[in-house]
Q: What sequence folds into this?
């Protein structure tokens, strides 16, 4: 493993293809690149790799931008912010790729080929029969412009292939160590497709060189491609950047992360009520640890602690329970201001939730958060307190609670509610403190325990027996709704035994 210092300012990039919202695996790639840029005082570049027109999804670049900003991983150069190497969409950099391809053709490092997919399939089938790796057979003589013209007229697909050198290539990877790929595993790969677009390999290498990228941190799935990139760099006279390929992140059963087990996109975690600081902290530990037992860090602390030589070669596990625990802590530890901002953000991405639709004023949102500091996600507020903001007739009564709290003892609970209506009608002001104080005094004069009073109210206003403190609940609910719900249950008497 390399002990190379990371003190030199690095130029790193995050280069997603625009296929949708940011996957947590990609977020991890972005995070580690960002961390090392910040730590070394270097630059973090955001480049969109959109030359695979079949895979591009319209609007996905906006989603990636939104997700990165939500995480707080801001870029120094790239789409939207600009920079010295603009444009940062590969689809707008075609002249650079064309120039590189022309140079490779001129210098004999590339050649045209016209094989149809049927022909290629047949060649692959033969290789498979012989149980050897398929390698494209380089022609003795490279086609010239006249051949290309003829092929075009015949409607054949015209591609450009790179002349892969006949030697083993070693990647000096800063996480995985030296990884050698045998020449027999590498062949003359395509650098320009029949539709005229450069392939990922070509565009990626050209841009890394032109943008002055000095270090590439990316997923292990790209490691097998890196020898091709190194060969391209040599042929084009580019320097090879440092490479660091991160081990994979699997689910708890060692499989690929899947939506079946829960959220996999950053935006989905946001909608589920995770805080970005908790998600980032959790993601950072997927393949990295600063040593010791310490697991909880702020983003600033991570910048201070981060180094490539503390990255793990072993695959990491995406432990959703651990993430939930991090989030629970983050919510509990957040300042009221931070929590309010996070809650407002959550409301903005859950516009259809009853709480969002209730359009709560700031004081109410604060009260709601203060009454529920032990939630695990912001979405839990919905199940804990959603009843407060639901329509009165949407409250569903728990039959067991109705029986136990209201019907038992000849309807003692109902009788209690009848008495309370009058008390609540005259209560001034309708505040948490005044409500709690009134109920306390009421229990005293009636010589009954708190439960005998608070529980019938809870069933009436929420349908069940669990809610935040009764004063808090009723204050949030308001006098009118409280009385409406009490009167409704008195009229309906939902379960008759
Ligand atoms: N566009 C590639 C991706 O989608 C980038 C790979 C790389 O970082 O070289 O992940």
A:
């Amino acid at each position: 493993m390399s002990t190379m210092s990371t003190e030199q300012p690095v130029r790193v990039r995050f280069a997603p293809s625009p296929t949708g919202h940011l996957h947590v695996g990609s977020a991890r790639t972005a995070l580690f690149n960002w961390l090392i840029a910040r730590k070394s005082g270097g630059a973090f570049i955001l480049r969109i790799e959109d030359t695979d027109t079949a895979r591009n999804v319209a609007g996905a670049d906006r989603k990636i931008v939104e997700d990165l900003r939500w995480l707080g991983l801001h870029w120094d150069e790239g789409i939207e912010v600009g920079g010295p190497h603009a444009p940062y969409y590969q689809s707008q950099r075609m002249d650079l790729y064309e120039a590189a391809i022309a140079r490779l053709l001129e210098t004999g490092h590339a050649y045209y080929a016209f094989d149809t997919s049927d022909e290629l399939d047949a060649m692959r089938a033969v290789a498979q029969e012989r149980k050897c790796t398929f390698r494209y057979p380089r022609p003795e003589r490279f086609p010239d412009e006249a051949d290309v013209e003829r092929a075009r007229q015949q409607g054949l697909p015209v591609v450009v292939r790179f002349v892969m050198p006949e030697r083993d290539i070693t990647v000096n990877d800063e996480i995985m160590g030296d990884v050698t790929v045998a020449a027999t595993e590498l062949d003359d790969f395509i650098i320009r497709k029949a539709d005229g677009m450069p392939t990922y390999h070509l565009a990626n290498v050209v841009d890394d060189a032109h943008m002055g990228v000095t270090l590439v941190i990316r997923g292990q799935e790209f490691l097998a491609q890196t020898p091709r990139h190194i060969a391209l760099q040599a042929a084009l006279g580019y320097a090879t950047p440092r490479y660091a390929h991160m081990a994979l992140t699997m689910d708890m059963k060692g499989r690929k992360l899947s939506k079946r087990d829960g959220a996999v996109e950053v935006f989905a975690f946001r909608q589920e009520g995770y805080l970005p600081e908790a998600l980032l902290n959790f993601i950072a530990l997927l393949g990295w640890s600063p040593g010791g037992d310490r697991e909880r860090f702020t983003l600033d602390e991570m910048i201070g602690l981060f180094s490539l030589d503390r990255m793990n070669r072993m695959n990491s596990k995406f432990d959703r329970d651990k993430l939930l625990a991090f989030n629970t802590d983050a919510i509990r530890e957040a300042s009221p201001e931070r929590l309010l901002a996070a809650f407002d953000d959550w409301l903005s991405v859950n516009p259809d939730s009853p709480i969002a639709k209730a359009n709560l004023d700031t004081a109410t949102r604060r009260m709601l958060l203060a009454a529920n500091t032990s939630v695990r996600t912001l979405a839990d507020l919905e199940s804990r307190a959603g009843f407060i903001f639901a329509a009165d007739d949407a409250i569903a009564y728990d039959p067991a609670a109705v029986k136990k709290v209201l019907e038992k003892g000849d309807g003692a609970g109902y009788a209690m509610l009848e008495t309370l209506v009058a008390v609540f009608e005259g209560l001034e002001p309708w505040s948490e403190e005044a409500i709690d104080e009134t109920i306390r005094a009421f229990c005293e004069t009636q010589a009954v325990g708190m439960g005998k009073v608070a529980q019938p109210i809870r069933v009436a206003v929420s349908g069940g027996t669990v809610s935040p403190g009764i004063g808090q609940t009723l204050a949030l609910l308001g006098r009118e709704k409280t009385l409406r719900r009490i009167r409704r249950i008195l009229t309906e008497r939902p379960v008759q035994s």
User: Anything to note?
Assistant: The first helix runs from residue 24 to 40.
